[in-house]
Amino acid sequence: MTTDAFTIRVLGPLSADLCGTSVVPTANKPRQLLALMALNVNQVLPVSTLMNEIWNETDLPRSALPTLHTYILQLRRRLAEALSPDSARAAKDILVTKPGGYLLNVPDESVDATAYRRLLGNARSAAARGDVVTAARAYDDALALWRGPALVDVQPGAVLTPELARLEENRLGVVQERIDAWLQLGCHAQLLDELTSLTGRHPLNENLHAQFMTALYRAGRQSRAMETFQSLRRRLVNELGVEPSRRVRMLHEAMLAADPTLDVLPADDRIRLAFAAA
User: Is the pLDDT score of 208 beyond 90?
Assistant: First the structure.
């Protein structure tokens, strides 16, 4: 008896390989269905949710239900073709019909999003117990699973669109948690290029700018840190009509006062090597 290995990747282009064969459809609507089920493996997705994703509930055709069934059959056909001849499972055991909906029945560990959440949990647990080196490495491992924007090659509908926005927001938050960890370890000089790029892509993100200011200040580039604050302030005032947050203003004032609590020793050789290996 063989093991029906199923590998699903959603943190980038959609990839779903069963026994070494891709089961990703080329047509967009079946592709949407597979993407949505891949994001919610081992959860029953109601028929109404699936139809809302591929047509939008305000624009359902009369043939919506039989057409949905056709798409499900197409996905099962691809699964059946990929399964090995001596497989213990059939396609209907993987894409399972449940009362009122469907479920993609695969091991949790076969999905990159599940591995990402596990590594993120490890990172946060290590950070909470003060093991910053382990936390920083786990953050790096988690973010390394991303191969680009989530499901970048899938045209999302009404259900996938907010799910993808949530994933991208989570990713950016984790990037900032990772930077905080490496800043605690004294890797401010090593983070400058990355933070230059991130603040350019997110010009109104105050936390990224605070991290950039901190890295610049600790790297001996105090004037650039001040310029970064002023540039952020101008954008916030001109575009949003608000001043920087109290936290960012206090960081700026501490830098002006050369507050010694801002100083952190540069990373030692062991930490630099860990950062370089990330």
Answer: yes
Query: DSSP class of residue 246?
Result: H
- Type and span of the H or E element at 21: strand 21-22
Over 50: is that where the pLDDT of 162 sits? yes
Please state the rounded mean pLDDT for residues 161-179: 96
**Phi, psi values for residue 169, rounded to 5°:** -65, -40
Sheet with 101-104, side-by-side order of all strands: 45-46, 101-104, 95-98
Please give the structure tokens belonging to residue 236.
């916030």
With a CB cutoff of 8 Å and minimum separation 6, the contacts of 59 are none
d(CA 54, CA 75): 15
| Residue linked to tokens 């001043």 | 243
* Contacts of residue 84, Cβ cutoff 8 Å, sequence gap at least 6: 2, 4, 19
More confident residue, 51 or 89: 51
Return the minimum-mean-pLDDT range out of 77-81, 83-87, 140-144, 146-150: 83-87
Residue 70 CA to its chain's centroid (Å): 31
Q: What is the DSSP string of 110-166?
A: GBHHHHHHHHHHHHHHHHHTT-HHHHHHHHHHHHTT--SSTTTTS---TTHHHHHHH
Given a cut of 50, is residue 1 above it in pLDDT?
A: no
